[in-house]
Amino acid sequence: MLILLPPSETKRSGGEAVPLDWSLLAYPALSVKRRSLARALVSLSRHPEAAMAALKLGRTQLFELDRNRELLRSPTMPVIDRYTGVLFDGLDAATLTVPQREFAQAHLVVHSALLGPLAALDPIPAYRLSHDSRVPDLTLNKHSLKQHWAADVQKLLGRTEGLLLDLRSEAYVALGARPVRPNSIYLRVVADSGDSQRRALNHFNKKSKGEFARALIDSGQEFGAVADLIDWARSVGISLAPGAPGELQLLVEQHLASKGQPAKSTIFTAQ
After folding, report:
1. Are 56 and 130 spatial neighbours (Cβ–Cβ below 8 Å)?
2. Would the CA dihedral through 4, 10, 12, 18 be positive or negative?
3. Domain count for the chain
4. Residue pLDDT tens, the chain, 271 long
5. Fewer CB within 10 Å: N-end or C-end of the chain?
6. Per the domain annotation, does 271 fall within a domain?
7. Domain that holds residue 169
8. What are phi and psi of 240, to 5 degrees?
9. Beta-carbon-side half-sphere exposure of residue 103 (alpha carbons within 13 Å)
């Protein structure tokens, strides 16, 4: 079973004083593409004006260029500890036990724009690169990241066995499509609209995916088929059902904001 997550724009600083070691990253077949893109990003980030335009950064984000320039020699930390933001708040890696982290390492993959798919505990530096960034360097032939990654990532995912659960945003799906087979499924987060219809959820989408990934880790189970996953979800109060062909719908309960309190959502339904 493989749970595929998108990355986050934001990263935690610091880490162990051990620089990026390509041999410690999962999926070594991607090493050449990883190295060429990393070198190109370091080179680009030495030219602030060009880098800010290519990476779509504002004046208050110049520290991101510092990170990029140092990424080949800066401290590293495990993937699920490095990324921050709404989805990774929902995952809450800081509260995982050692056995849960080992389960995540075996079954959770985060699709980085810079490094491609990574296992949960792979040690990586802080960096800034988004799915729609362009890195104008001869090693990339001035191609987009889609052109750089899509064929290799698609081939890699095509070799995976068992259940593949794709929680990525559609922007990251474009950087490498999952295989088309019965046990390869895309998760779409939806909410009841109040008129017996379901609509795609935007504001709480990332949070719900993070919470769902955490629930899967907490279960400690490796599901072999979509039907088994749906049965498990029902048993723990998660509403999961077939959607469009090749998709599952995760139904989220929303609670409107009360006075002085923010709106909330949860993937768990009343038992």
Report:
1. yes
2. positive
3. 1
4. 999 999 999 999 999 999 999 999 999 999 999 999 999 999 999 999 999 999 999 989 999 999 999 999 999 999 999 999 999 999 999 999 999 999 999 999 999 999 999 999 999 999 999 999 989 864 555 568 999 999 999 999 999 989 999 999 999 999 999 999 999 999 999 987 555 556 565 557 999 999 999 999 999 999 999 999 999 999 999 999 999 999 999 999 765 544 554 556 678 765 4
5. C
6. no
7. 2-266
8. -130, 130
9. 17
Give the whole-angstrom CA distance, residue 63 versus residue 138. Answer: 25
- The tokens for 28 are 């070594």
Report if residue 164 sits inside a domain: yes
Q: Which of 170, 150, 187, 201 is closest to 30 using CA atoms?
A: 150
**How far apart are alpha carbons 122 and 118 in whole angstroms?**
6
What single string gives the DSSP state of each residue in 35-104? HHHHHHHHHHTTSHHHHHHHHT--GGGHHHHHHHHTTTTS-BEEHHHHB-SHHHHHHTGGG--HHHHHHH
The CA-atom distances, in angstroms, between 112 and each of 11, 118, 212, 247 are 12, 7, 20, 22
Instruction: Kindly state the tokens that stand for 140.
Output: 């990339």
Count of Cβ atoms closer than 10 Å to residue 141 Cβ: 9
